[in-house]
Design goal:
This protein has 70 residues and is mostly helical. The chain contains 4 helices and no strands. The chain has one domain.
């Protein structure tokens, strides 16, 4: 595990869609492919599509274990 600082424009989504969990983030806007597929936009998209039961896990070990079964 590595602590990283999220960019300032990464905000929680005010109204998650039906495919997102309740802790979804706004995907940073991209005007070119290299940014669209870079770390933060890609990671936010992957996080948003995780199931509610996974994002609400309380320990890093439980989270990691749940991810390995996805």
């Amino acid at each position: 595990m590595v602590a990283i600082t999220m960019p300032l424009e990464s905000n929680m989504s005010s109204s998650p869609s039906r495919t997102e969990n309740s802790l979804a983030y706004v995907i940073p806007p991209s005007h070119c492919d290299y940014h669209l597929h870079s770390f933060f936009p890609r990671t936010v998209r992957e996080w948003n599509f995780l199931s509610q039961s996974i994002v609400l896990l309380s320990t890093p070990e439980a989270f990691s274990s749940a991810l390995s079964s996805v």
